[in-house]
Amino acid sequence: MARILILGGHGKVALLAEPMLVEAGHSVHAVIRNADHVSDVQQTGAEPVVADLESLDQAGIDELLDGFDVVVWSAGAGGGSPERTWAVDRDAAMKVVDAVARSGARLLMVSYFGASLEHGLSPDEPFYAYAEAKALVDEAIRERVADWVILQPSGLTLDDETGIEVDEPEGSIESGEIPRATVARLIAETVDNPAVTRRSIRCNAGDTPVRDALASLAA
């Protein structure tokens, strides 16, 4: 089974994905910034790793990712200041892309439904920094990483787990909602389906079981 590193390991989606991955037999490590969250991660069965992505240089990111087969980015500034958004969602994420491009690990990036370089937002709009950061990082992943999947869920809810509806062919659905638990399942099932690679997966909640939806997208 895979050695997996989850970045943003105390986020709502990550805390749901960790026990799924552990139950599947993987060795799961979860990076958290706050040492007070160690026990929360331990309760999922994952191994907590205390590190601040925002403050690590490239060498520190390289060391953090060393030895892992799969890296899951589920981190983010969480709607903080633009400065923190640039620091985490762009700068730290770009260092992760660089590290993975060299190591050859499989990268799963949790992005969002509308992520695109053509997002159309003005720099003076509050969401601009996040939209631009995610678009730039997603594009860098497509250009530089060998084995990647970009997950682009729509609006996140706290509802119970569902199946999914995938935007295939692209543009066939509009952004709606999806439970965080379903996104967690999507992470876990993507890890276990290496044939799904070099794909961006836009999705809403739907009726198709996640595993079946991924099987239809396998390369």
Characterise this structure:
This protein is α/β, with parallel strands linked by helices and 219 residues long. 46% of the residues are buried. The chain has helices at 12-23, 38-42, 58-65, 82-103, 128-144, 180-191, 210-217, and strands spanning 3-7, 27-32, 47-50, 70-73, 106-110, 148-153, 155-157, 163-166, 177-179, 199-206. Helix 4 links the parallel strand 4 and strand 5 (106-110). The chain is built from 7 helices and 10 strands. It is globular. The strands form 2 sheets. The chain has an 8-stranded mixed β-sheet, with helices on both faces. It has a two-stranded parallel sheet with strand order 7-9. Helix 1 (12-23) packs across helix 6, helix 3 (58-65) packs across helix 4 and helix 4 (82-103) packs parallel to helix 5 (128-144). It has a single domain (3-217), classed as Rossmann fold (3-Layer(aba) Sandwich).
What sort of overall outline do the alpha carbons produce when their principal axes are compared? globular
CATH topology: Rossmann fold
Decide which structural class fits the backbone.
Answer: alpha/beta
In what order do the strands lie side by side in the largest sheet? 3-2-1-4-5-6-10-8
Roughly what fraction of the amino acids lie in strands? 15-25%
The biggest beta sheet reads: 8 strands, mixed
Classify the helix fraction into a percent range.
25-40%
Low-confidence stretches: none
